[in-house]
Amino acid sequence: MAERGGPAAQAGIHYQNSVSALYVGRMCDAAPRPDRGRAVEVRVEAPTEVDDTVVRFADEHRTYIQVKLDVRQGDRAWRKLWKDFDAQFRREVFERGQDRLLLCVGTFRPEHQELRQLCRRAATSEDCEELWDRLTSPEQALVREIDSIRSGSVGETDDALEFLSHVDVEIWTPQHIEDALLPTWMPDSNAPPTVVFGLLRDQVASEAGRRGRFTSSLVRQLLEESGISLTVPPDADSLRASVTMCSAVLRQHKSNLGNTGPHIRRGVVEEIVAWARETSDEKNAAVLLDSAGMGKTVVMRDALDALEVAGFTVLAIKADQQLSGVATQEDFREALGLPDSVEAVVGRLAALGPVAVLVDQVDALSLSLARDQKALNAVLGTVAKLRLIPNVRVLFSCRSFDLNNDPRLKRVEVARRFALPQLAEEEVAGVLRAKDIDFVTLSPATRELLRVPLHLDLFLRILEERSTSSAGRGTDGVSTLQDLYALLWREVILAPDPEGPPAHQREQVLRLMTDYMDRERRTSAPQSIFSRLDTRYLDGATRWLASAGILVRSGAGWSFLHQTFFDYCYARQFVDSGESLSEVILAGDQGLFARPQLVQVLAYLRGSGSPEFLRELNLLFRAEGLRFHLKELLFGWFGTLADPTDAEWLLARRLIADPATRPRFLKAMGANPGWFACLRGRPIEDLLAQDDEVLDAEVVPYLASMVDIEQEGVVGLLRPFLGRSDRWNARVLWVLGRIRDWHTLAAFELFEQLLREMPASEIEATHELDEVVKAFPREGCRLIRLVLDRSLDAYLKSGGWRQYRGLLKDMPLHDYTLQEA
Question: Any bridge partners for residue 167, and if so which?
Fold first, then answer.
């Protein structure tokens, strides 16, 4: 017998059966869910207007599901589904305010995303007037189109918006169903989720012609007859207990400064909580990003507490301590002590309420592509699954350098990036005042150094090891992290202690740990390395270092007080060996393990003020045999130096002057105010005098990378070129379009001047005005508030800009200040 329909129809039926099978399987999942989310009956090909699938839930509300493998706005199937939805909506059996209409599509199209956003806004607006004001022009057009399909003509939008408030849209591609839904929707059993799902889908297909009705008891009987035994998953309280136990590692992390200093709560914690509360499921992944030592772990610990207060269940993972050596998903689960996979546990808890997953120090698994690669792959794979689960928010912390230099981390799509500013001078001064140290009397370099939380913490530890009379001795010349670790080594690790182990044994413990962690590519070392016959005598020294805060208990092993201290220990040993970095790198295989070696040793040589630093740096930059990935890493590391010296600037000038190296170094030094300060004056003028090809490919993108950070400086550089040519006008507009934080009057003035200079056709052709206007702040500048109030909404919805330009015509920006309310 020939199959009904062609291949396309068969694919659509297969997809429809797959969606029905998901709900059938979920009925038998014993995981706790609120009544509104607990399915008790599934009807396929039901005798209703929306007949693909009808699901009844424990609270007696129903969801009428229309399933389309692919549907396009405007085609016949699109029009039919809205007529069917409308007919179902108008039936007396449909309980308005309770029942739902669900469109499930298997192919992503822009109109599906737009429709989903529209329906969610309709469901969360208090009245139609509020909703209509929130809709974009395309969304308003979509409302009118759907209304005309339902009624045959455009009628009252209030009725259309009430209708849409009952509609949900899910974009479930077949791949999404397999990756994200099967693990959490299929019941736990002695069979893999794919096997259970396949069996249920076949049963749905056989029952569809008879308008089959499925209940939990019937499905359980079917599974038992097929040899599948269901298992009872842990209850919600047990799951929460395991999550709390896992999170204890981060919760117990040291959060005060020094040994007895205060805890400084950072403002970004409130930003994280606000994001977790307000963001959508589509934008549910974020990263806390900054350089080493800025206090990301303390912020993650504070975010754990704050999110729990806000009503979230929080799973916190400290990657450097809990995931070192993890290679498989099973290793991952066992390392965290969870009863099931991370995504299964989180998925079950997310059905009961919002869940936040915090993964701290992902960079410790990356370390520039060299260590714990399998662990990092396991983490990123889990994050990818978690972000597909509704009601889940994922935040991981990472150093900027690792995110920018590890291609796996670079590929992780995040909707929000949180950054940590340095501590305010007043905060540092207050902390030091309690230790009888006058912040003002310290050198400018020391004061700047101590604005980094790790540096201040180390500084206080050193002070607390000294007697009160000599607390500040020898600390005023400290200007680098290298100086602080050298002091820590001398004042703490080698501190005389008649009742403690000899100093040479403490150093031997650090050497053994460093050698093991480097050799095994791990972020911690097991206790077993000190239980051998030849190392047992070091047990006392190990415990002494732990009591001094140099070592931290990490599961069944030890880790250093901070990842940067491992870098310091490794580089110190390498330099003490007398080897040349460039010779070792060039003579080796230059594989991934050479990356941390290069960065750590260069950072140590620079911090110690060794003359070998510039020699090695020059040799590596000039080496023809240095592989591409190491050369890129070298450029990236050199470009991120926050406070380049005069000698480093001389090397940088040579890199900028050489057309072969200029593009790479300009890209590497982007968003770095330290290098921008070096370029001021003649160097940047020389760059702006380059030909059009260099300007467009290298110089203008560099200025765009700096425009948020050095806004006044960049605007000052661009202003003389405004009006010089159409090409320069377009460049200026392009740079302004990269601004995400309008905070200087000079930038507003340049924008006003640009609008007066450029013909309408040129501005419209660039498509850049959208980027500029969308980034305007909604508070803080009287002119911009006037623009927003009178014309911006109209501008954004109509796609035109003339009304906006007309408003500016007789309103010079210098009449207003950014401080006006």
Answer: 101
Per-residue tokens: 208: 């569809």
Residue % of the chain over a pLDDT of 90: 45
Which band of pLDDT confidence, cut at 50, 70 and 90, is reported for residue 769?
low
Give the pLDDT confidence score for residue 380 in this predicted structure.
Answer: 85
Nearby residues of 170 by Cβ (< 8 Å), 6 or more positions away: 102, 103, 104, 105, 116
- Residue 783: the pLDDT is 45
Contact 685, 652 (CB under 8 A): no
Q: Would the pTM count as exceeding 0.85?
A: no
Strand-pair category, 551-554 with 525-526: unpaired
Lowest mean pLDDT among 125-139, 202-216, 313-327, 674-688: 125-139
Q: What are phi and psi of 78, to 5 degrees?
A: -65, -45
- The vertex-247 CA angle with 241 and 250, nearest 5°, equals 160
Residue 820's pLDDT is 37
Can you name the residues that pair with 618 across neighbouring β-strands? none
501-521: b or e for each residue (b if 16 or more CB lie within 10 Å)?
Answer: beeebbbbbbebbbebbbeeb
Q: What are phi and psi of 613, to 5 degrees?
A: -60, -55
CA gap 142, 121 in Å, rounded: 13
Query: Is the Cβ–Cβ distance between 121 and 54 less than 8 Å?
Result: no
Helix or strand holding residue 358 (H, E) = strand 355-360
Q: Which residue has the tokens 């794919």?
A: 194
Residue % of the chain over a pLDDT of 70: 87
Distance CA 781, CA 748 (A): 10
Show the 3-state SS of 120-179.
Answer: HHHHHCCCHHHHHHHCCHHHHHHHHHHHHHHHCCCCCHHHHHHHHCCEEEEECCHHHHHH
Q: Is 379 exposed, middle or buried (0-12, 13-18, 19+ CB in 10 A)?
A: buried
Phi, psi of 660 (to 5 degrees): -75, -30
Query: Distance between CA 2 and CA 108 in Å, rounded?
Result: 31
Q: For the segment 781-811, what is each residue's pLDDT rounded down to a tens digit?
A: 444 444 444 444 444 444 444 444 444 444 4
Q: Could you read off the pLDDT of 401-414 as tens digits, one per residue? A: 778 777 778 788 88
439 closest CA partner among 410, 475, 464, 489: 475
**Distance between CA atoms of residues 814 and 781, nearest Å:** 11
CB 785 within 8 A of CB 779: yes
Question: Is residue 178 within 8 Å of residue 220, measured between CB atoms?
Answer: no
Output the CA–CA distances (angstroms, integers) from residue 304 to 300, 475, 479, in the order listed: 6, 35, 33
Q: What is the pLDDT of residues 223-240, one digit of tens each?
A: 999 999 988 778 888 899
Listed in sequence order, the residues at least 6 apart from 224 whose beta carbon sits closer than 8 Å to its beta carbon are none
Q: How far apart are CA 579 and CA 600, in angstroms?
A: 14
Query: Residue 493's closest CA among 572, 547, 562?
Result: 547
In single-letter form, the type of residue at position 471 comes to A
414 neighbors 286 (Cβ within 8 angstroms): yes
What does the block give as tokens for 641? Answer: 């130096």
What is the average pLDDT across 296-315? 96
Q: Which tokens belong to 275? A: 């994001």
